[in-house]
Write a structure and sequence with these properties.
2 copies of one chain form a homodimer.
Chain A (H helix, E strand, L loop, with lengths): L4 H10 L2 H21 L3 H10 L8 H11 L5 H4 L2 H15 L6 H8 L10 H12 L8 H8 L3 H18 L6 H15 L1
Amino acid sequence: MTEYDAIKEYLAKTLSTKRFIHSENTAKTAEELALIYKVDSKKAYLAGLVHDCTRELDINQQHNMLKALGIEVDELTITTKELIHAFTAEYLIINEFNIHDKEVISAVRFHTTGKENMTLLEKIIFLSDVMEPSRSFPGVDFIRQLARSNIDEALLTAFDSSIRFLLGKRQRIHPNTLLGRNYVLKHFKE
Amino acid sequence: MTEYDAIKEYLAKTLSTKRFIHSENTAKTAEELALIYKVDSKKAYLAGLVHDCTRELDINQQHNMLKALGIEVDELTITTKELIHAFTAEYLIINEFNIHDKEVISAVRFHTTGKENMTLLEKIIFLSDVMEPSRSFPGVDFIRQLARSNIDEALLTAFDSSIRFLLGKRQRIHPNTLLGRNYVLKHFKE
């Protein structure tokens, strides 16, 4: 028994096999990046493991979780399954897994959009979700390579990739993704 | 003598030939779109003509104009020549051309970035600047075609084109462009 067995058992029961494997992969990738960047690797593994724990829940159920948490989110987030789960995960993180670590919760909360001025742990979870071994899209190998040598360059490339993907699908783009990208570029220049 | 001769004379003296021609072209394109969409075509011509009147001024001179106008803008706008001129144009529009029309000033102000919930005149100036006959970039003919049949589809395509251009150049993207794009997409769906 490891300390993660209870969480894994819960995820195995409630997620599709594909997403369960993705969650384990994200945890392992996050742990690896944490070791490179000298961030708490247990927090990274944990955040990676639970980041998608509410991703497959009905959206109405997720609205109830937000109410229970007392969190208000913007209109785009509340109507988009790809976004809202990052906020509702906190409900299971606290109530099901009994984790109260604010750094872990924040890293999960911004794993889909990013934001301005991210912590290293937030960057690691954002990137691990994008680049874990089962992910396959044009440019993912370049992101994997950059992530191990220059995390901000990897982050910029991942933001660009996400923006291009949503442009191509005629979908709205969350402002935090743009603000996160602008922030990275501004700090490169300074 | 037309009523625009004094403005044209001023622009001919203060702008490069290329930008003077671009200004006249933008005015004519805006007038044409205004007739299609039943917007005041004199306002459209005027806004098109003056939209770039401060585009070639020194940025410090433009900072003084903002102070004189009492306008505060965000950090990205104030440091970017491609953005700040849309705000400083108001200084010449009022003090040199003696135009006080708020619709004209607003159309000039948002001609580079766009924004949420644009008026028809704002959309027309934004698009005329992008698609006037001397402009040449991949996709411009498609924007020209759309602009005459579906202005919001043209606007979306122009926003996408602007975002892709800035992604490719590793430059920051003004949030108003993203918000403008999100707004158009949301209203298509509704």
